[in-house]
Write a structure and sequence with these properties.
Oligomer: single chain
Helix content: 40-55%
Protein name: Aldo/keto reductase
CATH architecture: Alpha-Beta Barrel
Number of strands: 10
Strand order of the largest sheet: 3-4-5-6-7-8-9-10
InterPro entries: AKR2_Oxidoreductase, NAD(P)_OxRdtase_dom_sf, NADP_OxRdtase_dom
CATH topology: TIM Barrel
Organism: Aerophobetes bacterium
Number of domains: 1
Largest sheet: 8 strands, parallel, barrel
Strand content: 15-25%
CATH class: Alpha Beta
Pfam families: Aldo_ket_red
Distance between the termini: 17 Å
Order of helices and strands: EEEHEHEHEHHEHEHHEHE
Radius of gyration: 16 Å
Length: about 230
């Protein structure tokens, strides 16, 4: 599978990433098969969040990671906004994923300016990420969200290693800031750019190939599916 550089991290990442959101909808057996098959086909970016099934997706992915951890970049997320609670959440994610570290840890669903202010406060979750990085629990700090104007402010304020946003040709017209400002700014700052919702929540399913080709024609590192 083709790979691209993840910004300043210099990591080589497969252009298709595997997301864990929908793993809660299938059996553990099928989830384990799917993650293994993805790795077998050359994929190397696996992303999940503790909110997905209240940890269920992390547990399913962990069953594969216990044997194949070194074959991929593993990412999880933090939806909490306070430093102490975020550290506890990270430790729980590591336990469920059966690993001692994450490659990327996202500040998850930073969708409002208030979210960003809380995350970046003196006792916010971003302080937990900095602490965890020093302790070797995570390697890179990232941010995700659905509102490009909020992400733009965040990456202006903080040197994230990667940013994840909604990138597809449908939302190009609804949210022109994504391609006009967010992507160029992230590229200027040498951040990895990770795309989600290439099919616009299924709206573009009839033209899936064109949808993926469009998103991958942009300077993104990987498109997360699932």
């Amino acid at each position: 599978m083709q790979r691209r550089k993840l910004g300043k991290t210099n990591e080589d990442v497969s252009i298709l990433g595997l997301g864990g959101f929908h793993l809660v909808e299938i059996s553990t057996k099928d989830a384990v098969w799917l993650v293994n098959r993805y790795l077998d086909e050359g994929g190397n970016y696996v992303e999940v969040a503790p909110l997905y099934g209240n940890g269920e997706s992390e547990i399913k992915i962990g069953k594969v990671m216990k044997n194949r951890r070194e074959e991929c970049l593993l990412a999880s997320k933090c939806h909490l906004r306070e430093e102490d609670k975020a550290i506890e959440l990270l430790d729980e994610s590591l336990m469920r994923l059966r690993t001692d570290h994450l490659d990327l840890w996202f500040m998850h669903a930073v969708n409002t300016y208030e979210d960003w202010a809380r995350v970046n406060s003196p006792r916010g979750a971003l302080r937990a990420a900095e602490r965890a990085k020093k302790e070797g629990k995570i390697r890179y700090i990232a941010i995700s969200g659905h509102r490009p104007e909020v992400l733009i402010d965040a990456i202006k304020d903080y040197p994230f290693d990667a940013v994840m946003g909604v990138i597809n040709y449908y939302d190009k017209f609804n949210f022109p800031l994504i391609e006009d400002v967010l992507i160029p700014l992230a590229k200027e700052k040498n951040m990895g750019i990770i795309a989600m919702k290439a099919l616009a929540d299924g709206f573009l399913w009839k033209s899936a190939e064109n949808a993926f080709r469009y998103t991958l024609s942009l300077p993104v590192t990987t498109v997360v599916v699932g």
